[in-house]
Fold this sequence. Notes:
187 residues; mainly alpha; 2 domains; 7 helices; 78% helix
Amino acid sequence: MKVVEALAGTVTQAEFAALIGVSEAKASQLASEGVILRGASGHAWLLAYCERLREVAAGRASVDGGGLDLVQERAALARSQREAQDIKNAVSRGEYAPIGLLADVLGLASSSVVDRFEQLEGALQKACPDLPDEAKATVQQVIANARNEWIRSTAKLVADYLDGLEQSLDDDEEGDDSAFDDAGAAD
């Protein structure tokens, strides 16, 4: 009974630390984190400390108060596992291929087209020897413009796709966090 009576009044952080078996620094940290409120009774401190221990044990609060807690870790793990499975499914459906392979194919296709464009002047000379130089220059200019537009539009398409992919991943993360927070709150 003497301990219970002693807890009815205020206690110092040193006394509270000795009671719960931690250092004075830890008791001070609990006060700075708002777990125990200065000026409250020892009984209130003990109840608040026990509540904090239950929250940590249940995974609803982190031990250090500022780092990642169990709920956030579970959400991050679940998100990573889902993303990995989504990638595996997309690969099996043929929606994705290794970036190296795609780069090689695109490089070969581009090289092939450029080679054909470079042969155009000689082919025009053989097929149409009487074609004026102005017409040849116009054809070459149209081909060069088409090639440049192809490069520009391909680069824009890739950039737009990557921006959209990044946005959808950001949207997924926001949705996952709120959905998991709701599930975690039900614990």
